[in-house]
Amino acid sequence: MEMESIENNVESSKQSTPSRAADDHGDDDRISGLCDDVLVRILGLAGGDAAELVRTGGLSRRWRGLWTRAPRLCFSPWPELESAGDAERFVSFVNGVLEQRAQSGADIDLLAILLFLDSDCLRGQREQLVPPSMKAAEAWIRYATMHLRLSNTRVRLPSTVVFASLTDLALEFIELAAGSGHLLARILSPACRPRLQKLHMMYVKFKRSGTKGLELHAEELVVLSMENMDGMRLLELRTPNLLDLKIESCGELKALTVSAPRLEKLAFSHNRWGAGVHGDLPCVWPWGLMINLVSHMFSESDINDTEILLLQRCRSARGLRVYLEIPSEIERRVDMIKDRIPQLPNITSLFVNIHVITERHSFGDGVAGLLTRFSNLIYLGLQLDEVPGCTKRDEYYKEDTDGDLAFICDHRDNWKSNDISLAALREAEFRGLTGTGCELRFLQSVLASAADLERVTVGFSMDYNLKGSRIDEFLHTLLGDGMRGPPARMVVTSLMSGRP
């Protein structure tokens, strides 16, 4: 078993390492004759995967054990653990390497440990493995010096340790042990991590931790990312130097309070409906704000209220990226965007990922209301996302009686009542198209007022295998007849694009 060979290498590394090249390959092995510090720097170029680094011990006796001194160490039990014994050996192996590293006094620039206890093979044994893995994880946290990534385990956070040099921390698929939730704020505080600059948390479970919220005071923090925080209902951030904030898919988050005067980029999407947002959100970066919106609902709803509040708060933002969900049977639903979202003259760049739930004939109806909110756009990008299994190609477009691929689509254009004015537009990108008549008519309407357009990129979905003649006709109609001839300085690009 590979784990056994790794353990043998660890044992041999505990023996003294020759100071000069006593290798197995004779005098021609000049690399092995280099000093330890140089060899360790070479190992630092290998990426840090312990399973790969340990194999360098097979080069010669000179290399045995040196890999444990590499500046980056990443431990992952792959292939997955098959028994409780495998899990215990993996924990023992990691402990042995880290203990040896601590004895040498060498810092670890990056420490990444992934412990998978949820495999089918370990089902029924997980609870007996949790206590020893928790104890090990607490010790592993203490070994980190600059960068730490800890994944797939339940962890009891230490209450006293200080990480003076740690700058980068990632916690993924972590379950906070019972009663240790309050320690998360402490372990992320300046007193414990005075140099922490990047924090990434994904699938962190709060439910057993004894707390429902997190107060994060981090003076040096620059980048913060939180995704799928299970059980986190309250989040308060006091981060004077934070530049980049991402909060995504936190379905239980009820209130977010932010004090981040230097914030430049905010991504807030797929969180709890109507979550309260408080504080100063300047968002001055060109692509400063990313949100998700739902175009229509069957009845009045507060589904977009938080996002609307963010748009009102981030008045200095110049760029906006929207993930727009357009449901089925749109003609029977209430518009959740038009006349609800305020006019946004500050936005000059807009990119919209259009996600249509069933079929895409109604995409114009969902997008048009959003475009009426912008009057100063210089750049506009529309990306139609493909939804596998939703589009019936034979019903989506057809050939005319002459055999030419025409743009036959007789669906009602409900978007025509919207007043879209993009007089300042200079560049437009439309991607993921299928060449249908409803797409063509809507895009003609979008570009009708863009008299000074300079660049257009049109991308067609590869899933529909469109012929060149169909693409040429689409472009000619859109940019020729539809605009009474494009300006001489306009650059037109067409391309085929796969599913995003």
Q: Could you characterize what this model shows?
A:
The protein has 500 residues and is an alpha/beta fold. 23% of the residues lie in helices and 25% in strands. It has helices spanning 2-13, 36-43, 50-53, 84-104, 126-143, 182-187, 305-313, 363-371, 393-396, 437-447, 468-479; strands at 72-75, 110-114, 147-155, 168-176, 198-205, 213-217, 223-227, 234-238, 244-248, 255-259, 265-269, 276-280, 289-294, 296-297, 319-326, 334-335, 349-356, 379-385, 427-433, 455-461, 491-497. The strands form three sheets. The protein has a 15-stranded parallel sheet. Strands 6-8-10-12 form a four-stranded parallel sheet. It has a two-stranded antiparallel sheet with strand order 14-16. Helix 10 (437-447) links the parallel strand 19 (427-433) and strand 20. Helix 1 packs parallel to helix 4, helix 4 packs parallel to helix 5 (126-143) and helix 10 packs parallel to helix 11. It is globular, with a radius of gyration of 28 Å. The two termini are 40 Å apart. The relative contact order is 0.05. The model is unreliable at 9-26, 390-406 and 481-489 (pLDDT under 50).
